[in-house]
Amino acid sequence: MTDKKNSPFATDLLNSAPTQIKMAAAEKELQKVQKKQQSTAAKQQKQQKIEQQIASVGKPFWWMMTMFICSVIYLFPEAVFNAALTDVAGGRNSSHDDLRAVELFGRTISGIGVTLLLADMLLSGKRVARVGRALGYFCLIAVLVWPTVFFGQKWLVDHFIIDASTPEERQQAYLSQVLRSALIEKSIQFEGINYNPDQAHSGTEKTFLSVFGGLVYADDKLVDDLSQKKRMIMEKFVRDKAMSRFDSHYQDYDEFRQTLRGKYQEYADGSAKYNRALASAPDRSDEYWLDTQNQVKQGWEKYQKGVTAYEARVESRAQKIAPKIHDYFERRNKCADKKKGNSRNRCFERLQDGYDREIKKYSIPYIPPDDWLIREEISTSENVGNSIIAGVMTFGLFTAMQAVDAATGGDAGLKDHRMVYTNDVNHYKNVLMVKMEPDFIKESGGYPLGINSLHTFRVHELTSLKVNKKLKQKGLSLPTAWSITDRRTFDKAVASKVRQQADIEWRKNMRAKNTDMPPNLSWKAFQRHSDIQQRIAKRMGDLYVNPTLADWNNRQFKQQIIEPNIQRKTTEYLNVLEAQKAEFADGGIFEATGKSALRATIIPPISMSISLALVLLTVLKLPMKLVELVQAKQAKPTTEKSTKPYVKPAITMTILASIFVVPMSIGGNEYTMEDSAMNYFFEQMEKNDSASISFALKWLLVTQPLVQPIGSTIDNTFSITKGFNAISEPLNQFDLAMLPEHDSSDHSAKKSTAKPTLKLPLTVNTNVDGARVSVMNIKPRYQPGMLLPPGGYDIKVSAPGHQDVRQWVYLKADKTQFTIKL
Known about the structure:
Blueprint: H1 8-14, H2 17-57, H3 61-89, H4 96-122, H5 131-162, H6 167-184, H7 203-218, H8 220-227, H9 230-244, H10 246-279, H11 281-338, H12 341-360, E1 374-377, H13 380-393, H14 397-407, E2 417-420, H15 425-435, H16 437-443, H17 454-458, H18 461-473, H19 487-512, H20 523-528, H21 530-540, H22 554-577, H23 591-634, H24 639-643, H25 647-660, H26 662-666, H27 678-687, H28 691-718, H29 720-727, H30 729-738, H31 746-754, E3 760-765, E4 772-775, E5 786-788, E6 791-798, E7 805-811, E8 817-819
Parallel strand pairs: 3-8
Antiparallel strand pairs: 1-2, 3-5, 4-6, 6-7
């Protein structure tokens, strides 16, 4: 052991398998413990770093980075909404539906923005120390805040602005919107306002149009002055608007009438086909008649075969039965000649029983024995001769008995016939032919024996009945007593069937085209048909005049369509403008119209201003957030926080000044210059104690045109509004289910229940003939012109080969027709 050599025993022990395995297992366990210690140390180090970041800026770096990224991402849809709202509110042909769509988009984005803002403000310290806890708090805030903001915005606007408005405000808002439209059509001009609707609208013009309605609405003096000239303004506005689009309207009319002529050509071709079908009646009658004669001929051939088969069957049975019957009579005669008394009777009974058993073997009707006998006539000479011979043979006794019998009323032994039997097979065949005739009648379908010619078979009553039955199966209706010799009635029945088939085919084709017109209408009658007028009404929309014909040139189109529409539209506008203010109150006929106008007048400038301020505020706060990110990454407490408390307020004031002061001091446009006529409106606002609103609108006119192009560029690049519109329908339905449009107060509801509800005709036009229109939120099936209470309706338009379109429309007194294109 002193030479440090391993003993054999120790070497074997160390190299043994159990020891090696234990050492390897111990080594692995040690590595696991070391890794766990390293992981714990890393987590502690990471948590210590997070705590240092929280101690430094109140939040960990990862949370601040998440909020920073979310703020940047949020900035994109907010800027897009700002641009989209400017496009809609400042658009020339924007509708209430367009405003509704962009409002839905804005409320969705606002909910997200407020959620991010509150999450950034409220979540700090231990709440965001761990990822799971931070995400849990964030989801809780989102679930509470987003619906509150989404629905709260609408409720606040409707409750405190729209529903709380007075009838005067609603009527004035409607007038301001009409004047805005008149300005767009150049029906009125304001001195000093260089607005040209024919030029492409930039962000400046769109912002101006967004604000103009609110400026006019706020100026009571201007509204009063213009109200005195409203009839003249309305007539010029409607005429200018109609004539500015005359070429477009006439082009649409011309395209449609060409399409209608093509439809008439299809209709005329269908009528010609229908007439050809009717004209084919004689040929069809000949075909049916030939078929009938073939049927008769086949029946005659079948009858003849039946007779032949019947005769063969009777012949066979006659061959078998003739000797049996002949033997029967032979035996019966022997019984009569040889037997006497009871013996004779028993002999007859035995023969009769044997006869009955024999007859049953042949499957024929029972035939009494005497029916087989042949009647043989006895002549007078034979009777006299037999009497003389009998008298001679009896020495006159027979003659004396004849005399006595004749005296007592007898036949004196003189017979006119006698019954004899025979073994002639033909006789038995003739008897069976008669006796078995019922079997033949049954087999032949009712025909008796003895029909010897085709003519006799043809004119048989049963033949007419059978032919009539077959013809009824083919759709020919003939009288029950019809005879096959009556060709005239047959021709009438065929003509009736041909007309019936032609009518069925015609109605089928008409149903496929969603119409119900009779054939052979002239072009003039075709145009005036109610179905065609409905199609014209769908295509013409608000321009439709009953009846509208497709033969008018542009001069006639102007006289028959444009001029009546100008008068009608002018009257509609004036009816609203000259209506009593009470009709704009809750429950009044123009309540929805006034509220819609007020919404279009007031809400866009307010939403646009708030959105613009949020965009600018978010942009200017991003650098501050970036600085905070750097501080959080370094995990060093800021000395400014303790030594310079005025830094953050100073930064906040700087940001606000950058947003609201800098644009007003360095920029401007033709609508905000001091010498601009728009200053008149701002001055009127300031005189009405609305200086803050005047400043906000002027700031909006200056700042919005600078930001709007940025949002439009972002939207054109990323198609954010298109993506939202593609998925917004469920959200739209949910929103209307929770807060219907212009939700009335309890007082209004009671008033409307006390007063009969006004019903208006709903008409939905589309660009595809035969399209199906459905109103999804009511039970009654859609019919053009159906009467419904004013309100919102979910319209679905579908047609084969086209993608379904669903859109909410708002039925009101001045808007009862809607166009939805596939």
